[in-house]
């Protein structure tokens, strides 16, 4: 029998249950995929807690990699036996196998294994659109990146280094500072003992940065705005500490700032753009220019423990479930 992690009510990690599930044959435009590895992302907790509503009962997870075992009618861009990865709705990636739409599947090149793919597809594509689509960043630009030792942070900093962009990263501990530095982060701010905005001003000769990439949310938004130069851009691409309150007048007070709350789905919805972003990402990883750190591996049955670890901030880099 196939198995999946499902939840019947919103709540803490304990609502996650390991259940037997029936997986049928794929219909038109669908495939049946056997997972090899599943991505663990902080955004998964948003669905589990109900911050992002989902019809219940529900599966969980939007990122995984594996092998296609069957294809339905009209599926032409992938075939039985192909190794693929994906990051997309509908929920249900926390499973040993599933039937799902074929459209979001991305074929894996020979140089990237399934575990690496599951660890980097969402994080890597997020880094890709943040650096390549959000703002016309230039060589010699300096940006502020929160959670620099996280899964996105480690990929982002390596990629920024390739582009000649200087990264000021925030971290919560010296251990995470060392990890961030090792992956290309140029300057470290310990946000628990330093004033982020003041340190950013010191590091930029009082000017501030043109862009802040903030995946934390409520706890960091004030410091993020205070770190921006006039007409700077605040990119709120995550809400690990909750949804930040945004007062439009404060945007004016801090220098006519801009703010965006992007979602990865809107940057990979078009097949051509998804292929372009994935191709650039895969090229860097396959060539060794960007290294993917899988620092936590869990059995899928241990999803409750994995969520507790993640929410307690005890993870660094990427985390995956290995099947």
TrEMBL record:
GO terms for molecular function: mRNA 3'-UTR AU-rich region binding; NADPH binding; quinone reductase (NADPH) activity; zinc ion binding. Coiled coil: none annotated. InterPro entries: ADH-like_C, ADH-like_N, ER, GroES-like_sf, NAD(P)-bd_dom_sf, QOR-like, Quin_OxRdtase/zeta-crystal_CS. It holds the Pfam family ADH_zinc_N. Residues 11-321 form the Enoyl reductase (ER) domain. It comes from the Bacteria. GO terms for cellular component: cytosol. Keywords: NADP, Oxidoreductase. The keyword Transcription regulation does not apply. NCBIfam families: PRK10754.1. This is Quinone oxidoreductase.
